[in-house]
Design goal:
single chain, 186 residues, alpha/beta, Rossmann fold, two-stranded antiparallel sheet, 8 helices
Length: 186
């Protein structure tokens, strides 16, 4: 069901970024083409080399690729994709998407995307439950985005509650269901 699908995977700064490697691996195994866009803060949690190796494509993170002025065209990326998946999605990126802020390649690609968008948040339980974050989720749903709810469990802070990014298998299943025609809102 994912064979030949073009998936942009946005990876944001979160301890859950390590799960992005597993997600890329599973998407590639399902024969999807995966283009990773890594935010600056995400690269402190997982390396571009890991994600490039698994996706078999260079990881993008900046608008400009090199000193010659070659750039990563966010409009072309947005038109290329069959789906944009942001996993993990930080509270910062969720707020940018919800409010149309566009200061990095991922948020610019999001605003240019014509494809379905899936957001898998990961944050501590108090952040996840904060009214501002919940309001941003509501806005994103209102724009037609699909939120893959965070799971409940032990968090990196040591607290227990909702905020764990959905497991890669669950995210892949959501995508498979979507592309097989089961398009219920997550």
């Amino acid at each position: 069901m994912l064979k030949g699908k073009k998936i942009i995977l946005g990876v944001c700064g979160s301890i859950a970024a390590y799960k992005a490697a597993l997600l890329v691996r599973q998407l590639v195994k399902a024969e999807a083409e995966v283009q990773v866009i890594l935010t600056a803060s995400a690269s402190e949690f997982i390396t571009p080399l890991t994600l490039a190796t698994l996706s078999r494509r260079p990881v993008l993170s900046q608008f400009v690729r090199d000193e010659a002025g070659t750039w990563n065209n966010h409009v072309e990326l947005g038109l290329w994709a069959d789906a944009l998946v942001v996993a993990p999605a930080s509270a910062n990126t969720v707020a940018k998407f919800a409010n149309g802020l566009c200061d990095n390649l991922l948020s610019a690609t999001y605003l240019s995307a014509r494809c379905p968008v899936f957001v898998a948040p990961a944050m501590d339980l108090d952040m996840y439950q904060h009214p501002a974050v919940q309001s941003n989720f509501t806005k994103l749903r209102g724009y037609g985005n699909r939120i893959i709810e965070a799971g409940h469990g032990e968090l990196a802070s040591g607290l227990v509650g909702q905020g764990r990014m959905a497991e890669p298998e669950e995210i892949v299943q959501v995508l498979q269901n979507f592309f097989s025609g089961d398009r219920k809102i997550v």
